[in-house]
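To the wet lab folks,

You asked to see what we're planning to order before we commit. Fair enough. Below is the target structure as tokens, and below that is the sequence we designed to fit it. If anything looks off to you, flag it before the synthesis order goes out.
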């Protein structure tokens, strides 16, 4: 299988972001978003997905974090789509359940070529570590729209908002890792009866 790496830059009047992604890494993260709790959560995807990821982001955080969070999701999604390529020879689907103390989340992914997000998550408080938890939806929506995949995130139970968020991101990493894993029986073939997983 060819190298599955990508680098994407996104520059707007609101944000300047550079992402480097290697799907066949070892879980190394170098994250500088200006949002420490978001860095902590993205690191969970990287470590449990066994990806290597570098993000350098500057945004109008003096206004609020919305533009930065959404645009980081978009840029990461673009890098993921480029790195995964035509999806020949991979599993395509992935799923994971991850617990953390009282919290339990389930994430299911389909590298379908069609963006779709189901975000069935309720947080018991509005902020964790100074981070607005509403923005997690914006992050995943941006990622899904540009990675061109279907993603279901379900927080099945939990009382601690930090635990809920962490289980979602860990499960996302493990589900994505499963989906991009090579399947020897599908070598050279796209896992779809259509023969393509792109629009």
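Sequence we intend to order:
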């Amino acid at each position: 299988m060819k190298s599955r790496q990508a680098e994407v830059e996104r520059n707007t009047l609101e944000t300047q972001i550079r992402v480097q992604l290697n799907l066949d890494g070892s879980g190394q993260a170098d994250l500088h978003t200006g949002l420490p709790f978001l860095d902590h959560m993205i690191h969970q995807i990287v470590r449990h997905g066994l990806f290597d990821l570098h993000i350098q982001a500057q945004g109008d955080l003096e206004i609020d974090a919305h533009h930065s969070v959404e645009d980081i999701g978009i840029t990461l999604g673009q890098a993921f789509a480029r790195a995964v390529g035509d999806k020949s020879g991979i599993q395509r689907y992935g799923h994971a359940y991850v617990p953390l103390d009282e919290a339990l989340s389930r994430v299911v992914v389909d590298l379908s070529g069609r963006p779709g997000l189901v975000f069935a998550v309720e947080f018991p408080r509005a902020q964790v570590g100074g981070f607005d938890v509403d923005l997690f939806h914006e992050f995943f929506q941006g990622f899904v729209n540009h990675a061109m995949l279907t993603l279901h995130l379900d927080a099945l139970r939990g009382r601690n908002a930090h635990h809920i968020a962490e289980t979602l991101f860990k499960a996302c990493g493990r589900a994505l890792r499963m989906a991009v894993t090579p399947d020897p029986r599908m070598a050279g073939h796209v896992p779809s009866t259509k023969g393509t997983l792109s629009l």
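Structural context that might help your review: Residues 87 and 190 are 6 Å apart (CA to CA). The first helix runs from residue 36 to 49.

Thanks,
Computational group
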